[in-house]
Amino acid sequence: MTDYSKGRSLTEIDHMAAAGPRNAPAPDQSIATKGYTRPEVLVSTAWLADHLDDPGIRIVESDEDILLYETGHIPGAQKVDWHQDLNDPVQRDYVSSGQFEKLLRSKGIDENTTVIFYGDKNNWWAAYAFWVFQLFGFTNARLLDGGRIKWEQEGRPFTTEVPRHAPSAYKAPRRSDEKIRAFFQEVRKHSEAGKPLIDVRSPEEFTGQRMHMPDYPQEGTLRGGHIKGARSVPWARAANPDGTFKDAESLRGIYEKEKGLKKGDDIVAYCRIGERSSHTWFVLTYLLGYDRVRNYDGSWTEWGNAVRAPIETGGER
To answer: Rounded to the nearest 5°, which phi and psi values hold at 166?
Structure first.
């Protein structure tokens, strides 16, 4: 067991969402040159390799494969299980403020700690964990550009050691869903009003040919298709082959030139249970600077099972 509990804090990022980062380190130039609106929310693998021993950061791994962490992880990383740690164990909802507070205290995290998220699947679940943290106003957070796959492909170190940190005194605020989370009735009104809906699932899921991605069990919903008026932009189009995000110009080509989105739009993104759409929410919000993007985490498992929910099949209309 490695003890990472001692030492000073990393340069602080403001905890209040409206204020943005305060006294944050200069963005990594490999990120800054990509033209993002908020380049400071990403770090490169080289940056993280240089900061593994910094006592002011906490590295968090969140994977689809919940056993992957135990096979080896970035040195100093702690595991956040998206199902057990972030979701309420009884009702379909996220953890309460008290549960979130307990989680962060156990990881030695407070508002002065910079949390670096990464994971498998090009950071699906890392982006999902990042999004859930934002529900509690925890803005001192970043994603590792390229995630686990890029770190591994570069031959960087993994370990099975689990770090130990002194518990923090973190105090969680009330969870606030209003700004970045959308619910069924809100999405229904959004669709009826003809506002932008981005379906980030695979093309086969969008058309209704499949209930889930290829190579996954085709179960969980009673109907296939997409929400009326949705536009199809599979989440993976935002990523390069090495798992890093495409540059801002390429992303604008996809979301703005192809799909006609504008910065002032009120946008809802969805997938099957909200994890892939968290990735797209991150892209639109932080990399392209859109102010009004919400993630519909009920997504197709709710919509495709709801009685009389309007559904379209086939391609975009």
So the answer is: -65, 140
Who contacts 10 (Cβ-Cβ below 8 Å, separation ≥6)?
A: 25, 51, 54, 55, 56, 57, 113, 114
Strand order in the sheet with 42-43: 42-43, 141-144, 114-118, 57-61, 77-79
Q: What is the pLDDT of residues 94-121, one digit of tens each?
A: 999 999 999 999 999 999 999 999 999 9
Residue range of the domain that includes 159: 2-164
**Residues 59, 112 within the same domain:** yes
Q: How many angstroms separate the CA atoms of 168 and 308, rounded?
A: 47
Q: Are residues 11 and 155 in the same domain?
A: yes
Q: How far apart are CA 230 and CA 178, in angstroms?
A: 21
What tokens were used for 245?
């995000």
Decide if 128 contacts 85 (C-beta within 8 A). no
Active site residue 13: no
* 317 lies in some domain: no
Residue 298 included in any domain: yes
List helix spans (H) across the chain: 29-32, 45-50, 68-71, 97-106, 124-135, 147-153, 184-192, 203-207, 248-252, 275-282, 299-303
149: how many CB neighbours lie within 10 A of its CB?
18
List pLDDT tens digits, range 4-25. Answer: 333 333 333 333 333 343 444 5
Residue 175 corresponds to which amino acid? Answer: R
Contact 73, 158 (CB under 8 A): yes
The CATH number covering residue 202 comes to 3.40.250.10
Same domain, 81 and 224: no
Catalytic pick among 95, 132, 271, 283: 271
Domain boundary among 164, 198, 213: 164
The predicted model scores a pTM of 0.90
Are 21 and 142 in the same domain?
A: yes
Supply angle C-alpha 177, 27, 173, rounded to 5.
25
Task: Check whether residue 82 and residue 19 sit in a common domain.
Answer: yes
Last residue in a domain, options 117, 135, 164: 164
